[in-house]
């Protein structure tokens, strides 16, 4: 059948050629862009999945940047603390050197004091100038803000806290009382020996060291107490008169590391009196001793009694007890509470709201999602001399600044023994802060960075599998489509030539 007005074969060839050209164009676009999906029409469902994965990539990339930024902040803080540590070690050396009073002139002491004042000034300057982009790091700017400290709380430390809302109450519950080590040397109202020339000797052992004491007949309980207390800093044991019974020895500190040991070294068989000997503290340790027979002074071996650590919980979490301090480390809270050395605080089980955290701390977003689980908050305390080295000495609180000229623990005419205690505490403060920063970097930041890196790799691979072009497949498709276009073009040419044959009929 020959027609001229309507060439159906040409229309078919045109349609097929158009389809082949569109397919070839899409394939060439995929090869040119490297993407299998360039618009929604290419793969609607794949586009939706790909865009979600791209959003996840953006969040993960930002989180990785946040971790790197947090690490930079911690590095700057660590650098300042490292210099403070060096200065404190120099300060320790100056204090120890100045204690050699017989070997130093007043001019040398004053020269040492000048160095001490310079060190204190430098520490304050470091605390006030260590900053990241203008935000000071070591002046307490990133310390936790706390109020409502309970009367039974001696000291506290909030290292990290995550909470929703404006505040977080920290509740401490004492379940096991803290105890000192304690022994009583029972000799009656005064030491009564067989002869006036006899002596009674014993060694007092404590967590700080040992010291031997010798007493003659007629020595009063007050004499024995004063002699033992004169070496309290050497032994870690204090003494008090127990009525008309004897001398009560108690460890200065609480806890399982604190103990009192007594070993009679001579004259034990010379002591006269009923019930004499060494008695241990009772379970309650409220200045009472165990009943029953005392350990005789003729016993060769040491009699020792050890204290007990406090036990309890903080915000429902089982806390580690050491001395009178309860501490807990968890994802939500890293804090320690030190109770006062009183019966109500450390020896009476019960609960108190120790303090309330009102905010503060350096907060970092370390995850792809913005929520409390992906936040890390660390406290950076003030390391100036007015805060460092806080030490309770005989009921008075002293700090590093008290080593300055004219103050309680100055090097010229101050209490050097107290100065050493203050510096030791300051060194411990800075060392623990550096340790927390190091742990935060190594265990939180680095681990998070590793995890985010793996997540980024997996998300990127998933997005690539959906959206990227498979070049081998696309190249094969392009070759096929090129051949089809050529074939369709040839077919169109033939179809267009068919009407020419109709002219032969009228020829």
Summarize the model shown.
This protein is α+β, with helices and mostly antiparallel strands.
Features:
507 residues, five-stranded antiparallel β-sheet, four-stranded antiparallel β-sheet, 8 helices, elongated
How far apart the termini lie comes to 17 Å
Our count of helices gives 8
Global structural class: alpha+beta
How would you write the strand order of the largest sheet?
A: 3-19-5-14-15
Characterize the main sheet. 5 strands, antiparallel
Mean pLDDT: 87
- Fraction of residues in helices? 25-40%
Radius of gyration: 41 Å
Tell me what you see in this structure.
The protein has 507 residues and is α+β, with helices and mostly antiparallel strands. Among the domains are: 65 residues; 127 residues, no CATH class. 40% of the residues lie in helices and 24% in strands. The chain is built from eight helices and 23 strands. It has a five-stranded antiparallel beta sheet with strand order 3-19-5-14-15, with no helix packed on it. Strands 4-18-17-16 form a four-stranded antiparallel beta sheet, with no helix packed on it. A hairpin with a 2-residue loop joins strand 22 and strand 23. The longest helix has 55 residues. It is elongated. 33% of the residues are buried.
Task: Reconstruct the topology from this structure.
Layout: H1 8-33, H2 44-98, H3 106-129, E1 131-132, E2 135-136, E3 144-147, E4 153-161, E5 168-176, E6 180-186, E7 199-205, E8 210-216, H4 221-229, H5 232-235, E9 237-242, E10 246-254, E11 259-266, E12 277-280, E13 303-306, E14 311-314, E15 317-318, E16 320-322, E17 325-329, E18 333-339, H6 343-346, E19 350-360, E20 362-365, E21 375-378, E22 391-393, E23 396-398, H7 416-467, H8 471-497
Antiparallel strand pairs: 1-2, 3-19, 4-18, 5-14, 5-19, 6-10, 6-12, 7-8, 7-11, 9-10, 11-13, 14-15, 16-17, 17-18, 20-21, 22-23
